[in-house]
Amino acid sequence: MIRKTTTASVYFNSPPKYSSLNMMKEQEITLTELLESRDRRWNHEKFLMAHYPKLTLICLTVVMPGKVKRNARSLIVAKAATQALQGIFDEQTSLWEQKDLPTGFEAYCMVKVNPETAKRRCCNIEEHHPLGRLFDIDVIGPGGVPISRQQLGMAPRSCLICGKEARLCMRMHSHTQEELQAKIKEMIDEYVHRL
Question: Which CA distances in Å does 103 have to 62, 121, 176?
Fold first, then answer.
């Protein structure tokens, strides 16, 4: 039996029109709040792994640069990502949790799939879904060992703007937040237009 829990509303059952989502109040977060949310997420991951030691943990967050982590666009990305994950892991899922927080959307999925297979499936979503570049999907095997793309012989994630390795562009601050936000807006607007 799958145990599903949800914190707050993510508009997944009956989404309002995109235009009404655009009017939602946006809340900036501080660096301290962001760091605390990462600590909380890591502690929750440890809790889940302790309670499901033989399963693989999938942790989903939304890529949303800037001080606002929860807005109309992030919720559209969250919905698309959860639908994609549930579509490929539904029958193998023992637990699904999602949290809609000011610091950003989070989902946790415990699956009966070996970590390498789960990572390959998640990378496939990240690479081929129209919004996949905005999904941050981590896969953690039993014992708390994260599975990396490199371990599976896969290329690192590419930059949204220039196509180079995303990690290097982030480290070098190759693109402004405004450029990234404009590209994200363009991707989401195109996706919504096709729905």
Answer: 10, 26, 21
pTM (two decimals) = 0.86
Distance CA 126, CA 111 (A): 18
Return phi, psi of residue 104, to 5°: 120, 160
How far apart (Å, rounded) are the C-alpha atoms in residues 1 and 153?
A: 34
What are 96-117's pLDDT values in tens digits? 999 999 999 999 999 999 999 9
How many helices, marked H, and strands, marked E, lie in the chain? 6, 6
Q: Which residues contact 167 (CB under 8 A, 6 or more apart)?
A: 156, 157
- Token code pair at residue 118: 């789960």
CA distance 162 to 164: 6
Query: How far lies 28's CA from each of 7, 40, 66, 68, in Å?
Result: 20, 19, 8, 5
